[in-house]
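Q&A FORM
Asked by: J.P.
Topic: structure of Flagellar FliJ protein

PROVIDED:
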Amino acid sequence: MAKKGFELDQVLNFRMEVEKMRKIDFATAKQEFEGANEQLMKEEEAMSHLIHEFADKQKDGISAAELLLYADFSRKKTVDIREHRQAVISLERKMTEKRETLLDAAKDKKVLEAFKDRKIRAYNQGIAEKERHFLDEISIQKTGHGKR
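REPLIED BY: S.T.
REPLY: Here is the structure written out as tokens.
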């Protein structure tokens, strides 16, 4: 007797592939977020260094031209940091969405795997029941032949 296959194997394989793709998407989004966040931290650190440098220059005395240069650079750096912070927030949202999509794909796969396991268990129990019934029949036939 040939073993009966799982009817939804193709669907399960598809779900596994979808989960694999979602893992890749999530990993990519996470890398982008972490890279952007690291860059933001470096920019904020550079801004902090600039502020300290400016404070030191003010103590020593600073010309109007240098003051203007520091002010312009500081303003530009502040705008850059604000834009970068918005990009990081956007990438974090994207990463969260990818994580949710991955979790949904994993749940879909798990449901099918559990269904497959139940079907295989039921099939194996059915086979075992048929074997017991067959062996009982043989036993009955043997004991019946011995009494004649």
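FOLLOW-UP: The chain has a mean pLDDT of 90.
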